[in-house]
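User: I'm writing a short report section on ligand binding and want a predicted complex to refer to. Could you take this sequence and 3,4-dihydroxyphenylalanine and write out the structure as tokens? A short remark afterwards would be nice.
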Amino acid sequence: MKSAKELLQHFQKQLAAITSLNTLEELKIEYLGRNGRINQQLKNITQIDPSERREFGQELNTLKEQITQEIELKRKKLLQIESTKQTIDTTLPAKSYPKGSLHLVTYAIEEISHIFEKIGFIRMSYPEVEWEFFSFEALNMPSDHPARDDFETFFMDYEPHKEHGKMVLTPHTSSGQNREMRRLGKPPIRMINIAKTYRPNWDASHVPMFHQFEGLCVDKRINITHLKGTIDYFAKQFFGEERETRLRPFHFQFTEPSFEVDITCDICQGTGKVNGEKCRLCKQGWLELGGTGMVHPNVLKAGGIDPDEYTGWAFGFGVERVMMMKPGIGLNNMRLLYDGDIRVLEQF
Ligand code: DAH
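Assistant: Sure. The structure tokens for the complex follow:
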């Protein structure tokens, strides 16, 4: 049996450790409840010598009073703490948390996909690490052809494939053309292939890893008017209604005829002049978008499509390039996109 003093000390120790009203209530029950410690002690009164019972009873009563008082005091303190916690200072400025955003290239890819999906093109992605065959041979560029030099390529240190040659990092999304022809077996084809591409260049307008989007349309009686109409549609959706495009004769192995696509400059509106002076961005009113043309019969054949029955067009543009040409973006160095400086991305 503990003495009243010991019990009080024990209680005070427990009380000091209490920080919430709930645990305080539990402590109160532990000591003052019907089966609490005080009442347990009272039950022991019968074991005490009758002459000492009075004093024992008094001691327990004082203890009970003291415990009750201390508990009340603690309750007040806890209530006070609780009330200051709940006070909200509405004049304080709100906390602002850092907000993440998508990378500019991701935004551009989403916008481009959406524009082409609206006119029934299917978004595809083909291997980033690809065989030479799909990157060149299937595109009418045999291994000894000088046009291959236009597509400086990273070769993988990997055993060559018996039919498909060496393994490369795709130098252009055109490698997806043959893949799509094989996937579908036969036209109609309306594909937009957006993927990473690689070439060993590193300057203000080139990075070794960049993105291209490749359009491919093959069906019966497809001609250049469909190509021009689709490119115009893209240019107006992506850059603005007032923009015009033109096709400039060019050469690519995989298209015949081939063109480079130009778009009117947004600074001089295609006039080439700003306040009587030569436009500094484009010099003659036009900016180059990328390559295009009517799919070469050999490319169709390589994909198992009969060029006497079907015709098609294709184009390949750079994602970073068209995105940087968008009015208001104001990025003049492609490397900024991949330097990882968060301040660049935070602006968009
Ligand atoms: N593959 C070419 C390049 O990377 C771009 C290109 C030109 C793609 C003409 C095409 C095309 O589909 O028809 O420079």
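A remark for your report: The radius of gyration is 40 Å. The CA atoms of residues 128 and 170 lie 6 Å apart.
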